[in-house]
Amino acid sequence: MPSIRLGIVGKGGVGKTTVAGLVARAFVERGRTVVAIDTDSNPNLGLSLGLTLAQTEAIPVLPRSIIVGSGGSTTAERLVADYGRPTPAGPTLLSAIRVAEAGAGCTCGGHATVRGMLSDALSGVDVVLVDMEAGLEHLSRSGGTLAYADVLLVVCEPTRKSVLTATRTAALAEELGIPRTLAVGNKAQSAEDVEFFTATLNEGGLSLATVLPFDQQVARADRAGSVDATAIPAGLVGAVDQILDAVADAMSTAVQ
């Protein structure tokens, strides 16, 4: 499989960061090298990759608005070496944005750095996974933070508002030139929820990669603020594998 630049997006509260952590560690379990970039201004991806809160907050933030790649002052490889930190789950984690001070200004510079990183080649890295901030604004920025992504995963929960956000996201991603957008249903608790995802996403023209069931182990970990870094919950393994397979299919389709 070729290297993958994977963006993970969705409406606030849908479990986007939890899904990002599951997908990142699943790629590692398949023997892939993964760099995960947290672009949320309230970064928590480290918790989903087995770090403590103190370790997550200690990760240095990428410099803003730096020119990466051809003609720039640095490379994506150099940024990973300087700012990346290993996680118990396996991926190397980068923190792109952190809002820690009121009135500090917008986060546009951090998004520009991430866009530059995605445009530059990372030798020896199989998957660059970007956990985006909730909503749509990152797709409307000049150039688009995820303009160089190969595949976009839109995470939804079984609500009409969440699916509406997903369909709006897919339309913006197409305008931005992202080759393929896939939907991931999350927190399903019944067959009715699964049917809802299938029907509404199909109406919106979105391909459904899988539906993740609501999982008590994940819920307990979220309440505790930590996860088991050694394994994906047994009830989610099959569905997470389906996400990776759908991404692989999307990549092969885009190449053809």
Describe the structure.
This protein has 256 residues and is an alpha/beta fold. It has one domain (4-255): Rossmann fold (3-Layer(aba) Sandwich). It is built from ten helices and eight strands. It has an eight-stranded mixed sheet, sandwiched between helices. Helix 7 links the parallel strand 6 (151-156) and strand 7 (180-188). Helix 1 (16-29) crosses helix 10 (237-255). It is globular and about 50 Å long. The chain starts with a strand and ends with a helix. Residues 99-105 have low confidence and may be disordered.
| CATH topology description | Rossmann fold
Summed up, the domain count is: 1
Q: If strands are numbered along the chain, what order do they take across the biggest sheet?
A: 3-4-2-5-1-6-7-8
**Largest sheet descriptor:** 8 strands, mixed
* Radius of gyration (Å): 17 Å
Distance between the amino and carboxyl termini: 14 Å
Query: How many beta-strand segments?
Result: 8
Order of helices and strands: EHEHHHEEHEHEHEHEHH
Provide the residue-averaged pLDDT: 83
Percentage beta strand: 15-25%
Computed structural class: alpha/beta
Q: What is the CATH class? A: Alpha Beta
- Please, what is the CATH homologous superfamily? P-loop containing nucleotide triphosphate hydrolases
What is the annotated CATH architecture? 3-Layer(aba) Sandwich
Helicity level, as a percent range?
40-55%
Number of helices: 10
Describe the global form: globular
